[in-house]
TrEMBL record:
It comes from Photobacterium aphoticum. The keyword Protein biosynthesis does not apply. Pfam families: Peptidase_S51 (PF03575). GO terms for molecular function: serine-type peptidase activity. Belongs to the peptidase S51 family. This is Alpha-aspartyl dipeptidase. It comes from the Bacteria.
Length: 243
């Protein structure tokens, strides 16, 4: 598989979506000789699917690729079958995952990425759905039917936009406390917190952790001290987790 799982779409100073990871994205799409990029913008709620697709096209304008939005396809399943690369936008994870299930796209995307070697790039919600379930998303479940199983490209749960912080005067649970609650209920699983400006890169059998701002990855397991992982580290061991 070839995956780039970004925590978010932009960091401070960026003018284009995915700009902070653009060198890695360019390398991947060039190496795989990608010509046909399909953007899945279903997670976008407070905006236009066309606008989000156009944002991705602008970021990739330096490459000789054709960028189309899956929402415009007459046959979305066939569009996935014809794709050389799939890019999944951030937004609301619940809406994104439910839409993929409703349109019968989970299987075709899995086949494209895991069997045909189609490149997969996601940010925020687009990264969260690469886990076995979306139960560690930060998003509100704004749809009436809660569907949690997702693509399962990686065996661990992902928490995007991870922040190790407390807010003065805030009496609700911290991000760490929410993750701890998940692990108490799901004691054999791991949660990977990827902060802003960082991503997981899978190439074949190898996975590395990368960051544009030197922020570390956080690996949470029940009753174990969290593991802090520096950018540039080989984290292939995460792909062997039995979750």
């Amino acid at each position: 598989m070839d995956l780039l799982l970004l925590s978010n779409g932009k960091v401070a100073g960026n003018t284009k979506v995915m700009e902070f990871a653009l060198p890695a994205i360019t390398e991947l799409l060039t190496r795989k000789n990608v010509k046909n990029v399909v953007v899945i913008p279903y997670a976008v709620i407070r905006g236009s699917h066309d606008d989000r697709t156009a944002m991705v096209a602008e970021s990739l304008s330096h490459l000789d690729v054709n960028v189309t939005g899956l929402h415009r396809a007459e046959d979305p399943v066939e569009a996935i079958r014809q794709a050389d690369a799939i890019i999944v936008s951030g937004g609301n994870t619940w809406v994104l995952n439910k839409t993929l299930h409703d349109q019968g796209l989970i299987g075709p995307i899995q086949q494209a990425v895991m069997q045909r070697g189609v490149a997969y790039i996601g940010w925020s919600a687009g990264s969260v759905i690469s886990a076995p379930t979306i139960r560690t998303t930060n998003d509100m479940c704004i749809v009436s039917a809660a569907i949690t199983p997702s693509l399962g490209f990686v065996p661990f749960q992902i928490n995007a936009h991870y922040i190790d912080a407390t807010i003065e005067g805030h009496m609700g649970e911290t991000r760490d406390e929410r993750i701890e609650e998940f692990l108490i209920v799901n004691p054999h699983q791991s949660v990977i917190g990827i902060p802003e400006g960082s991503w997981l890169a899978v190439s074949g059998e190898t996975m590395t952790y990368e960051s544009a701002n030197e922020k570390p990855l956080h690996w949470f397991r029940l009753n174990q001290e969290r593991k802090i992982v520096a950018p540039g580290t080989d984290v292939t061991e995460l792909m062997a987790l039995d979750c």
